[in-house]
Design goal:
Length: 160
């Protein structure tokens, strides 16, 4: 098995610190989209925990929404939940705030600690998969572990 890329190694080191035995898996193909990731790991699209970075309009603070791969995020609802409007973050903001490029942003280990909201729909699943630092790296965990690792608030963030 090939060695992990530097970004994936960074996520693996963070995971090792939690002590739950999580392993980062890098795939040959892309896991950048929820559909690609689900196909690569053999799970339902809903089990992909996608990390979406937004920028709080007033404070400029990063906001991480970890959403089910099957859901679209209701940005107005997220704004209400955090008390200020949000906007989509550009690639430079994402890299500065997280230390990772779009498509591989993990839910942990960000350069600037974000406000974290976790999609309530993820909580009904036994296992989920999250990005691990590159567009082709993921790791498996439980929804409860995601909440514990991120300190995130579980909320209804999906559109519709």
């Amino acid at each position: 098995m090939a060695a992990l890329s530097p970004s994936a190694q960074r996520v693996q080191a963070l995971l090792d610190g939690f002590g739950h035995g999580h392993s980062v898996v890098e795939h040959e193909g892309s896991t950048r989209t929820s559909e690609d990731a689900a196909a690569a790991v053999g799970c339902a699209v809903a089990q992909i925990a996608k990390s979406l970075i937004f920028r709080a309009k007033d404070s400029g603070r990063p906001v991480l929404v970890v959403a089910s791969g099957a859901n679209r995020v209701d940005e107005k609802a997220v704004g209400r939940l955090i008390g200020e409007k949000i906007e989509r973050a550009d690639p430079d903001f994402v890299r500065e705030a997280t230390g990772f490029a779009i498509g591989g942003v993990p839910p942990i280990g960000h350069a600037v600690p974000p406000l974290v909201l976790i999609d309530a729909d993820l909580m009904a699943l036994d296992t989920i998969w999250a990005a691990a630092g590159t567009p082709n790296a993921v790791f498996r965990l439980t929804p409860a572990q995601l909440v514990a690792m991120t300190g995130g608030r579980v909320e209804t963030v999906r559109k519709g």
